[in-house]
Amino acid sequence: MTQAGGNALRIDAVAFGYGEAVILEGIDLAVAEGEFLALLGPSGSGKSTLLRLIAGLERPSAGRICAAGRPVAGPGTDRAVVFQNYALFPWMTIADNVAEAVAKAHPDVSRPERRQRARQHLARVGLGEVVHQYPFELSGGMQQRAAIARALALESPFLLMDEPFGALDPINRAKLQDLLIEVWQGSAPRRTVVFVTHDVDEALLLADSIAVLGASPGRIIAEYAVPFGRSRRRATLLAHPVFHNLRESIAEALDADTLAHLEPA
């Protein structure tokens, strides 16, 4: 992983399991401040579990996770999480959903100021005209925009995203990928992002670096620095030979891991 700016996140010898079932084993990672890391792997590789460990929603069976130099002992507002299923409060308008996050970040701010800041965050993700609507009145893509706005309202230095676009159609997925990069690059200071995906092209489009997880148990089988600049266009990437070389290398690493598990001991 890139080391510019120092390590914002360190994962040392982390393991996790339920009873005798080992989900993750021997995970070591260092993520730099402001880096965009993609955790890439097939279903069952433990990538979502690793994200939950970073978020403090689960505790490692062994090893240690540190965020900004402090051990992760539980959830915290320093680590905002965006899930695939949006996780908005259905009884609140989207403005009130985001205002709740503003209140956590700034508990001394007045209620009118919270609502004003919530509207500003929603405007950043293109939802300025629907702030008074409820989640069930919005499309899946709009709900995920609202979930991203809520995560941004926490003003956390870490943004943890668990396949946030996995349930969307290709057009909305592409739009939200572009939105995420725009918002992330426009933030100062830039947040450290850990992004779970099983889509190789998505990882290469979004990330600065990629950690590939193999399954049974989940462990890191390969790491890649993504050599493209931040001004990335899909058409340009798809025509770039390095893009295809990286895609092929990642696919080969995953195939080799799968075959190793299929062969008899």
Topology:
Layout: E1 7-18, E2 21-32, E3 36-40, H1 47-55, E4 62-67, E5 70-71, E6 79-82, H2 94-105, H3 111-124, H4 140-153, E7 158-162, H5 170-185, E8 192-197, H6 200-206, E9 209-214, E10 219-225, H7 234-238, H8 241-262
Parallel strand pairs: 3-8, 3-9, 6-7, 7-8
Antiparallel strand pairs: 1-2, 1-4, 4-5, 9-10
Helix pairs in contact: 2-3, 2-4, 3-4, 4-5
At a glance:
The protein has 265 residues and is an alpha/beta fold.
Spell out the key features of this protein:
single chain, 265 residues, six-stranded mixed sheet, 25% strand, alpha/beta, Rossmann fold, disordered N terminus, 2 domains
Explain what this protein looks like in three dimensions.
This protein is α/β, with parallel strands linked by helices. It has 2 domains: 158 residues, P-loop containing nucleotide triphosphate hydrolases (Rossmann fold, 3-Layer(aba) Sandwich), CATH 3.40.50; 77 residues, no CATH class. The longest helix is centred in the last third of the chain and has 22 residues. A 6-stranded mixed beta sheet has the order 6-7-8-3-9-10, with helices on both faces. The N terminus is likely disordered. Helix 2 packs across helix 3, helix 2 runs parallel beside helix 4 and helix 4 packs parallel to helix 5. The radius of gyration is 19 Å and the shape is globular.
